[in-house]
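Complex record, two chains
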Amino acid sequence: MSTPRTTVRRLPARGSYDTAVLKAILDEALVCHVGFLHEGQPFVIPTSYGRVGDVLYVHGSPASRMLRALKDGVPVCVTVTLLDGLVLARSAFHHSMNYRSAVLLGTAVEVADPAERDLALKAIVDHIVPGRWDSVRWPSEKELRGTLVLRLPIDEASAKIRTGPPVDDEEDYALPVWAGVLPFRTVTAAPIADPRLPGGTPVPDHVTAYARPGGAGAD
Amino acid sequence: MSTPRTTVRRLPARGSYDTAVLKAILDEALVCHVGFLHEGQPFVIPTSYGRVGDVLYVHGSPASRMLRALKDGVPVCVTVTLLDGLVLARSAFHHSMNYRSAVLLGTAVEVADPAERDLALKAIVDHIVPGRWDSVRWPSEKELRGTLVLRLPIDEASAKIRTGPPVDDEEDYALPVWAGVLPFRTVTAAPIADPRLPGGTPVPDHVTAYARPGGAGAD
């Protein structure tokens, strides 16, 4: 799965090419950043996504700059980053972050097959809230005409992970400076019902028991 | 500050070109995603950053693929995204996220002036943990030779913001589907002292009272 383009060169010990590690990062995060070239200028656009096996799907309006550029089959980079903590060293130089990131390279192509498109849209909705698809109104023909779905095979990719305490220069450990990790967690707050929701509408389990696969859950 | 390239075209009501809004997003977030072209392939790399007035700074090793590409003065896109919540509509089609994002375009250049470089490094460390710079060992000459700092003027940029409840098609409001927003918050957990820290080293206020400017703070 690794190629020279996805080989982690800086601090290679942080690199991982294990598919399970990569997919766990993709499944836990909610937003990816899609990089593409448009008239000579790189653009990086945040968007939601879904994964089915070894394929990543993104979607949007056929009128969007991003999707119009991508459906022409241009090279793309999709990056997903989870921030796990701040790494506070004794020296400014060794400050860092604990994170898990996945970088996917490839060429996105439009999904033309209706069955694959439906599967992709379900994957995108259920990626955001597992179990949601089965409880909502599915897309109409008109809505499907207004939705472009792109597929990116997960076959040229790498993950990069930093964990653990700061690593200082040996002579700096004697400095009277607090050092360690300040962990971050993403939590959900209480759901806010739509003001137009009739009173008494039960909050479904997929909302009350919401949790990301990696562990981020209710506060 | 807006140009045709940074004008928000999809759902323009979500676009903002207010400098204060843009800077607030940059100041609250911790990670930016830098997009650049390298041998015909777009790359999107997560990294930390700092802001001083109307300039964004990123730094890293002179050996990194990203910084080597950028110091040659190639066009770059820096995107920062804050995820505020999941927007659960009655229809699959109207599912969305509440978010605040900033997109900066431009050409990054290497900071050659030592005074500006020092200011930039302070800004990057203090962006991660406000007040940290003054309590740590500052970079040595050798470390400075191993650090490349790039500046990107914040002059071609836009912010995009979505807030509030889902917006469903009128006929869907009668559906017996729970709809609303599931808010996300990023919180810090208890700091984890470096195992090599001498017992009794006090935890400084900039760690115990840590909070992002936008409000993310201790759990």
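Note: Helices of chain A lie at 19-28, 65-71, 114-128, 141-145, 205-208.
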